[in-house]
Automatic annotation (TrEMBL):
It comes from Saliphagus infecundisoli. Keywords: Aminotransferase, Cytoplasm, Glutamine amidotransferase, Repeat, Transferase. This is Glutamine--fructose-6-phosphate aminotransferase [isomerizing]. GO terms for biological process: carbohydrate metabolic process. The chain holds residues 245 to 602 of 602 of the full protein. Residues 38-176, 209-348 form the SIS domain. The keyword Glycoprotein does not apply. Catalyzes the first step in hexosamine metabolism, converting fructose-6P into glucosamine-6P using glutamine as a nitrogen source. It catalyses: D-fructose 6-phosphate + L-glutamine = D-glucosamine 6-phosphate + L-glutamate. The gene is glmS. Homodimer. One of its GO terms (molecular function) is glutamine-fructose-6-phosphate transaminase (isomerizing) activity. GO terms for cellular component: cytoplasm.
Length: 358
């Protein structure tokens, strides 16, 4: 049941210190240690394609970045565009299906295409024995525990961390020994994650920020690097449960069109991860100049915290996990905004937890 919580969504947001501890348990020590994928498991792979939908697609984008940042050819693709875009696949291609339920029809269809084309396949899922887990060569469990709310919350966080660890293992094999840069920093950050989230949850100002901006016309979310999929996810969550208009953009794209929509009635939530933050700040300032309130999601002593109209604080951490922390603040923001509007939250109109039609 929901216990002391009004909604499953809030319960699941608050479960994240535990679900993330489970996601990394036994998987980090001096290096990344995945029982499912011992050293050498990804030898011969020179291209990685992630296929997924919705929130899982955002997690896939997030995970793909750790690979490209390390010099491995990787892309996240929408599973429902996979057939139409027909990207090259051969026996040196690893296709990773990212699906919480393991039953999403679009994702299964992309996975089956990859199998037909002779790719090596892996499913990253929350459900043991799900269709996607059974049909792929191997699977990696995210161990988030059951998620009841239609809006994916804790599963996104567990996917993001599991995919970042998986990316680390792929990099070690694909680049023959050269692992991720600053691996110690990443591992220490992964270890601190449950405590960091605990602190963030206790100290979050998301409810107050949701109240302050409740009468806005539209809600924008910006980010760069791992902050970009987080911006997309922040907007998806917001529209899904509040029924208000929200959009996520790569920070640098604002000036290429969306800036025309920016007014004093469009709060701009900007995620800072520590990757090219000065550029992201300049992008947020372009919105501020047009009168938009800017809400910075960043550590307390970050330069953006001073110049922004409001601030949602995240603990200082490795840039590859900072976006995950920022996303938890955005989950809370969406939750509180939906609550103020008296929305059903756990069962948004027109949506299903598992989409089993193409
Ligand atoms: O079970 P899956 O991860 O394959 O589901 C994919 C999407 O339908 C899902 O992530 C959806 O976007 C979220 N429930 C939205 O919150």
């Amino acid at each position: 049941g929901k216990g002391e919580y009004d909604h499953f969504m809030l319960k699941e947001i608050y479960e994240q210190p535990t679900s993330l501890a489970q996601a990394v348990e036994g998987r980090i020590d001096d290096g990344i240690d995945l029982e499912e994928f011992p050293p050498g498991a990804f030898e011969g792979i020179d291209r990685v394609q992630f296929v997924a939908c919705g929130t899982s697609y955002h997690a896939a984008m997030y995970g793909a970045l750790s690979l490209t940042q390390a010099g491995v050819d990787a892309r996240a693709l929408l599973a429902n565009e996979y057939g139409a875009s027909s990207p090259p696949v051969d026996d040196r291609t690893l296709v990773v299906a990212v699906t919480q339920s393991g039953e999403t029809a679009d994702t299964l269809s992309a996975l089956r295409r990859a199998v037909r084309k002779g790719a090596r396949t892996v499913t990253v899922t929350n459900v043991v024995g799900s269709t996607a887990a059974r049909e792929a060569d191997d699977s990696l469990l995210i161990r988030a525990g059951p998620e009841i709310g239609v809006a994916a919350t804790k599963t996104f966080s567990s996917q993001a961390v599991a995919l970042t660890l998986l990316a680390g293992r792929i990099v070690e094999d694909a680049l023959a020994g050269d692992g991720l840069s600053d691996l110690d920093s990443l591992l220490a950050a992964a270890d601190r994650l449950p405590g960091d989230i605990e602190r963030l949850l206790t100290e979050s100002d998301a409810a107050e920020i949701a109240r302050r901006y409740r009468d806005s016309r539209s809600y924008f979310f910006l980010g760069r690097g791992q902050g970009y999929p987080v911006a997309l996810e922040g907007a998806l969550k917001f529209k899904e449960i509040t029924y208000e208009h929200a959009e996520g953009f790569a920070s640098g794209e604002l000036k290429h069109g969306p800036l025309a929509l920016v007014t004093e009635e469009t709060p701009v939530f900007t995620v800072f991860t520590g990757i090219e933050d000065d550029r992201t700040l300049a992008n947020a300032e372009e919105a501020a100049t047009r009168g938009a309130p800017v809400i910075a999601i960043c550590p307390a002593d970050h330069p953006a915290a001073d110049v922004a109209d409001a601030h949602l604080e995240i603990p200082e951490t490795d840039p590859r996990l900072a976006g995950l922390l920022a996303n938890v603040q955005l989950q809370l923001l969406s939750y509180h905004a939906a609550e103020l509007l008296d929305r059903p939250i756990d069962k948004p109109r027109n949506l299903a937890k598992s989409v089993t039609v193409e």
